[in-house]
Amino acid sequence: MSDKIVKFEFEKETKNSVRYKEVPEDGQPPIIGSLYVQKWYVGNTKNLEVTISKKD
């Protein structure tokens, strides 16, 4: 198993969700790209971290 923490920062607000853009590590391409999260959950949060676990 391998865990990876992916960081996101606020990009824009839509009607019911907030779009975050990935902040890739130096010299690495994005893993996820954009992420939409519902407003009721994130509120005014400007930065998110998502942990991805690969299970092989």
Count of helix runs: 1
Radius of gyration: 12 Å
The amount of helix comes to: under 10%
Average per-residue pLDDT, rounded, comes to: 94
Architecture blueprint of SSEs:
Blueprint (H helix, E strand, L loop, with lengths): L1 E12 L3 E6 L11 E5 H4 L4 E8 L2
Antiparallel strand pairs: 1-2, 1-4, 2-3
Structure description:
- The chain has one helix at residues 39-42; strands at residues 2-13, 17-22, 34-38, 47-54.
- The chain has a four-stranded antiparallel sheet.
- The chain is built from one helix and four strands, in the order βββαβ.
- It has one domain.
- The model has no long low-confidence stretch (mean pLDDT 94).
- By secondary structure, the chain is mostly beta strands.
Q: What's a concise summary of this model?
A:
The chain has 56 residues and is mainly beta. The protein has one helix at 39-42, and strands at 2-13, 17-22, 34-38, 47-54.
Primary descriptors:
single chain; 56 residues; four-stranded antiparallel sheet; globular
